[in-house]
Write a structure and sequence with these properties.
The protein has one domain. Helix content is 71%, strand content 0%. The protein has two helices and no strands.
Length: 93
C-alpha cells in the first residue's frame, strides 16, 4: 500500500475571478444604501411611534411620516454616494 502523505500534492490554480473595481464599488455602495434605508426607516418609525403615543393621541400618521423622512434621507444619501462614485470612476478612466 502506498502512503498518501509521501506523494506531493499539486496546488490547484486559483480559479476565483476577481471583480472589476467598478462592480465591487457599486456592490459596496448598494449594500450601504440598503442598510441605510433599513436603519433610517426604522429609526423614523420609532420616533413616529413615540411622538404618536406621547403627543398625537395614538394616531398612525406620525409613524408613517417618520418612515417617510427616514426613507427620504436614506435615498438622498444613496443618490449622493452613487453620483460621487460615478465621478470617481470617470476621473480614473
Amino acid at each position: 500500500m502506498s502512503d498518501s502523505t509521501s506523494s506531493p500534492v499539486a496546488a490547484a490554480p486559483s480559479t476565483a475571478m476577481t471583480r472589476p473595481v467598478s462592480e465591487a464599488l457599486l456592490n459596496e455602495k448598494w449594500d450601504r444604501c440598503l442598510s441605510n434605508l433599513l436603519i433610517k426607516s426604522t429609526l423614523g418609525l420609532g420616533f413616529g411611534v413615540v411622538f404618536s403615543v406621547l403627543i398625537f393621541k395614538r394616531r398612525a400618521w406620525p409613524a408613517f411620516v417618520g418612515v417617510g423622512f427616514g426613507a427620504g434621507r436614506a435615498y438622498e444619501e444613496c443618490n449622493t454616494s452613487l453620483k460621487q462614485a460615478a465621478r470617481e470612476i470617470r476621473a480614473q478612466a
